[in-house]
Design goal:
Layout (H helix, E strand, L loop, with lengths): L1 E7 L2 E6 L9 E10 L2 H7 L10 E2 L3 E6 L8 E4 L2 E2 L5 H4 L10 E2 L12 E5 L3 E3 L6 H4 L2 H17 L7 E5 L3 H12 L4 E5 L3 H9 L4 E3 L10 E6 L4 H10 E9 L11 H6 L3 E4 L5 H12 L9 E5 L3 H9 L7 E5 L3
């Protein structure tokens, strides 16, 4: 099969590789759409020791089953593979499984390829009303869905909460959509790129502003940090309302930014959130199917063979759409 292989810092090679082999309990997926994630960019830049070259990246996948009893069924793929029997898995917090694996990270190759092997329990069937590009958004939106669910359980009353989302990429936009779908209607997205702010407002119907435009006296009950760098954490801890909650998704940098003194004096909760549970993933998919997450029309397609150029376009901030989708068959 053809695949886009990460071969070293800032280098991707479109080439022939061996077809994957499905193990017991796994099915084969013919990949139709696969999104480029921020973690893929970190790996591309050589900043992720968990993703050493050579490796097939990509974990935001949709496609069609080509094996198993449901062969021919269109699906979206939960890329997080867990053991199913540890304490975390049994308690419904399978995203914390100590043996968890995710495709695009050793030992599991990712979805920037024509074919992908994945456990059958990790696929969710698609209705005819959802296309493959929309379906590939399930994974990034599920990250926000999980974070919002956790934030709401932390607040005593979230019905009239005001929310701030840091970052207008797919993770941030997905979190904003998840907030509204889960009953939080007052949402503002911070996004430094002016072109993307325009896109968020005109195409996605979102309120947005530049980071420097946030007023000193603006405070929010829920803050979702989809960036995860020192500056975003500093702004989050400065603008959380007393008794508010910050849920941290982004993995931009490891330390710095939080005003721990203010957070202590004002009882502001800070919660790190990682991916999603299997139930969160299914709930996100069904919210998409029901139309509760909007039109999901904020993607831009590139051929898989042009992946190197797509990564460079993202890095240069010349793409307004929150998500680039790579397509193996165009």
């Amino acid at each position: 099969m053809k695949a886009l292989v990460y071969t070293g810092p800032e280098a991707l090679e479109y080439r022939d590789v061996a077809d994957p082999v499905a193990s017991d309990g796994e099915v084969m997926v013919q990949v139709e759409s696969v999104g480029i994630c921020g973690s893929d960019m970190h790996a591309f830049l050589g900043h992720d020791e968990r993703r050493p070259a050579p490796l097939i990246l990509g974990h935001e996948v949709s496609g069609t089953l080509t094996s198993g009893p449901n062969s021919g069924q269109r699906v979206t793929v939960n890329p997080l593979v867990t053991c199913g029997h540890c304490k975390a898995c049994v308690s419904g917090r399978d995203n914390l499984c100590p043996g968890r694996q995710i495709i695009s990270m050793q030992p599991r190759e990712g979805g920037f390829a024509e074919l992908l092997a994945i456990p059958e329990r990790n696929v969710v069937a698609l209705p005819e009303t959802v296309n493959s590009d929309q379906a590939a958004l399930t994974e990034p939106i599920a990250c926000g869905w999980h974070a919002v669910r956790i934030a709401k359980t932390q607040l005593q009353n979230s019905n009239d909460a005001q929310a701030l989302v840091m970052g207008g990429g797919a993770i941030g936009l997905g979190a904003a959509l998840s907030l509204r779908a889960q009953g939080v209607g007052d949402v503002l997205i911070i996004e430094p790129n002016a072109g993307r702010r325009t896109y968020l407002e005109e195409t996605c119907g979102q309120k947005s502003c530049a980071p420097e435009a946030l007023g000193n006296n603006q405070f929010f009950d829920i803050i979702v940090d989809g960036v995860g760098i020192e500056a975003s954490r500093a702004q989050a801890s400065a603008h959380a309302t007393p008794g508010g909650v910050i849920v941290h998704i982004g993995l931009g940098s490891a330390s710095g930014g939080l005003d721990v003194r203010r957070m202590t004096l004002q009882e502001i909760a800070f919660i790190g959130t990682y991916t999603y549970t299997a139930q969160d993933f299914r709930d996100t998919a069904h919210a998409m199917f029901d139309g509760r997450l909007g039109a999901l029309n904020w993607t831009q397609d590139w051929p898989l063979e042009k992946g190197q150029a797509a990564f460079q376009a993202i890095r240069s901030s010349t793409v307004a759409a929150p998500k680039i989708i790579l397509k193996p068959n165009i």
